Design the sequence.
């Protein structure tokens, strides 16, 4: 568990799913104004299916004063994340990173990504992947600032939209050290 000021990063409990869905819909609803209605409805339903489904290996949440203010879902592969084994991604993928608009700019997304990367290292992964589109420009800036690089071979075409693949190389040796530290303090 990581702490930054009063923000707590933790694994979600089963009872947190509705709060996660609420944060996701609040955060992603800004795109309902720029997407055609049928596409937004499909996207919204996909978000809810991911939250309520069992495909994520981890649901990570950010909590402030007992309220969930952010979340990210971690999947083990492109098949688990998107039902698309043909993408050939066999390392963790983050999806649906969301931070409540009221608390943006406080480093919540960075903390969530950091925890997803930490968990990926513990899973023995050498990289962490994600997909995003140009309409999420501020997210792309954050990903690039954190060291994610374009992974063109994992791009997805969704209708007319190019969904761009990104990859962060993880320090595998740090994962072994982290596991040893966790074991010795547990």
Sequence:
């Amino acid at each position: 568990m990581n702490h930054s000021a009063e923000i707590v990063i933790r694994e979600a409990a089963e009872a947190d799913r509705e709060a996660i869905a609420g944060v996701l819909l609040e955060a992603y609803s800004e795109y309902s104004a720029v997407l055609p209605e049928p596409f937004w409805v499909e996207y919204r339903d996909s978000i809810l299916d991911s939250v309520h489904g069992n495909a994520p290996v981890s649901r990570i949440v950010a909590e402030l004063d007992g309220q969930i203010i952010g979340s990210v879902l971690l999947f083990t592969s492109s098949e688990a994340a998107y039902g698309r084994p043909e993408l050939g991604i066999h390392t963790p993928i983050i999806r649906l990173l969301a931070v409540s608009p009221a608390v943006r700019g406080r480093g919540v997304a960075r903390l969530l990504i950091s925890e997803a990367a930490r968990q990926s290292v513990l899973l023995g992964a050498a990289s962490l992947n994600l997909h995003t589109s140009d309409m999420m420009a501020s997210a792309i800036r954050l990903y690039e600032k954190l060291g994610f690089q374009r992974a063109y071979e994992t791009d997805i075409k969704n209708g007319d939209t190019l969904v761009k693949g990104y990859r962060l190389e993880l320090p595998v040796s740090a994962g072994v050290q982290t596991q040893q530290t966790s074991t010795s303090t547990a």
Remarks:
- Confidence is low (pLDDT under 50) at residues 174-186.
- The chain is about 40% helix and 25% strand.
- Residues 2 and 9 are 5 Å apart (CA to CA).
- Strands lie at 2-4, 7-11, 58-64, 67-75, 93-99, 127-132, 149-150, 156-158, 161-169.
